[in-house]
Amino acid sequence: MQHPAPVSRHLRLPLLGMAIVLLALPVKASADLVILAYHHVSSDTPASTSTSPDLFRGQLDMIAELDMEVVHLTEGTRDALKGEQNSDQLRVALTFDDAYESVYTKAWPLLREKGIPFTLFVTTDALDDGTRGYMSWSQIAELAEHELVTIGNHSADHGAMIPRADETQEALKARIADSLDKAQTRIKEETGIESEIFAHPYGEFSPALTAALKERDWLGYAQHSGVLGSYSDPHNIPRFPVADAFGGLDSLKDKLTARNFPVPYDSLPDPLLADNPPVLRMTLPENWDRNRLTCFAPRQGVMSIDQVNGQKVSIQADNPLQARRSRYNCTYPAGAGRFYWLSQPWFDKTQPEG
Q1: Tens of pLDDT along 241-254?
Q2: Which domain holds residue 284?
Q3: CA-CA to 354 of 20 to 30 Å: which in 119, 160, 201, 205?
Q4: Are residues 271 and 253 in the same domain?
Q5: Considering only 1-10, 93-102, 168-177, 320-329, which range has the smallest mean pLDDT?
Q6: Which H or E run contains 259?
Q7: Shared domain check, 226 and 77
Q8: Are 328 and 343 in contact (CB under 8 A)?
Q9: Is residue 237 within 8 Å of residue 218, measured between CB atoms?
């Protein structure tokens, strides 16, 4: 069975040999939480989902240099969603999707040595099938016994959670329920744990998945970038991917110090593409200057921002989005070199799954 975490359930990493100077940031205090999304920790696996061991160590060092509080995911998530804490303390949580073997062999020894908590989201069919490159159930059970480790559900088959071609809503709902519940059963059988957290395969989500998570009272984690806070959707929580292509130290500080974008999640559009290029409409806070908002489209650069009325703006890429999974990234200055960060994901179900 999974042991309870220490009473504090967080860890502030020391930077050995150096004095830590707390950041005095002239922005409103909050309980915002930055969540990092990892897959492989290796230099020999697919580049798009791999963080080299050297970069991983460098990322942990940067977390220490920023005097960040490393929190257990579930507790940190609930605190951030409430938005009730009054603190300038920067918070971060680490997550690993799929249960790849390199997490056990490369990341776990370092995390254990430093006493850093993390969450492992498990795809159960791959473990049941003994798929090469994944952990074994005995390794999962070993990790589950440790107070630093939280085990989460990542579905049974890692299938898409948006409609497939010609798939009815009823069929989608049944497929999602089967995958979630099968994985939940296997995790409990092997570890004794009833998980309350779910990571979306490929980061994709739909109203059907959201409804399934609500029904089970689970938290849900996606893979579009951004910061968790009181404006976030508890069932489609943003995380920053930090593979080699996205997690370089030159840009990581901006992500680790980013703020929750103050636009309610239920005012944002459905990410399932209807028109391409899609339109993002949102209402900015009253004191914001829209000319300081910057939004980017993949492979297209900065987008124009049109005023609809008052603080409502409309944002659209010049050309159609090309990938199955795309996003518009928007930032707004938050003071002291920090940014409010919003990522609006877009999913094109007509393109191949995976």
Answers
A1: 999 988 899 999 99
A2: 267-347
A3: 119
A4: no
A5: 1-10
A6: strand 259-260
A7: yes
A8: yes
A9: no
Same-domain check for residues 90 and 164: yes
Neighbours of 349 (CB within 10 A): 16
Helix residue ranges, H only, 46-159: 53-65, 73-82, 101-102, 108-114, 124-128, 137-144
Number of domains in the chain: 2
Find where tokens 């040595």 sit: 113
Structure tokens at 228: 């968790």
Q: How confident is the model at residue 86 (pLDDT cuts 50, 70, 90)?
A: low
pLDDT, tens digit, 9 for 90 and up, residues 247-276: 899 999 999 999 999 999 999 999 999 999
For residue 329, the domain's CATH number is 2.60.40
Residue 353 lies in a domain: no
Q: How far is the C-alpha of 134 from the C-alpha of 155, rounded, in Å?
A: 15
Statement: residue 130 has pLDDT above 60: yes
Query: Residue 4, Cβ neighbours under 10 Å: how many?
Result: 8
Residue 4 maps to a domain = no
Which pTM does this prediction carry?
A: 0.91
Contacts of 99 (CB under 8 A, 6+ apart): 120, 121, 122, 123, 126, 127, 134, 135, 140, 154
Residue 238's CATH number:
3.20.20.370
Q: What DSSP character marks residue 4?
A: P
Q: Is 118 helix (H, G, I), strand (E, B) or coil?
A: strand
Quick one: 248 and 271 in the same domain? Answer: no
CA distances from 9 to 6, 40, 70, 117, 250 (A): 5, 25, 9, 8, 30
Within a domain: residue 323?
Answer: yes
Assess whether 100 and 63 both reside in one domain.
yes
